[in-house]
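Example is below:
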Amino acid sequence: MPVRRRSRSEAGQTTLLIVGFAVVLMMLVAVVVDASAAYLHRQGLANLADGAALAGADGGATGSDVYTQGVPDDRLRQQAGAARAAVETYLRATGARQDFPGLSFEVAVDGDRISVRVAAPVDLPLRIPGSPDRPVVAAEAAAVITPG
């Protein structure tokens, strides 16, 4: 008696392949959308950090040492307290906390150079499994004041 072979049906294999491809495509779209949102958020923070560093350098160069030591040839020394206060005033005046909820900042003064680091959580439009709930994006800027 001849042996009959059963033919295997491949019905459903194409559907599984299409569904798998659609899932991968949706994940790729989510990554691109979230990366774009994070990039735009960082660009806004970079602009804010630039302005804050310039305001801090301007406010921190009080020139109090000019009265005792004369005008320096290269750069004015920064007063840490005045620089930090100028950065806080700048952030308040620009409405940075309303634009970037959860904003935090750090001001570092090293002689004649002021560095400002701002950070804020970003709400990503799409949720990717395994990604953080509220990732934090940061930007840094530095400035110095030179006598004109």
Notes: The longest strand covers residues 113-121. The helical segments are 13-60, 64-69, 80-93, 96-99. The mean pLDDT is 84. Strands lie at 104-110, 113-121, 136-144.
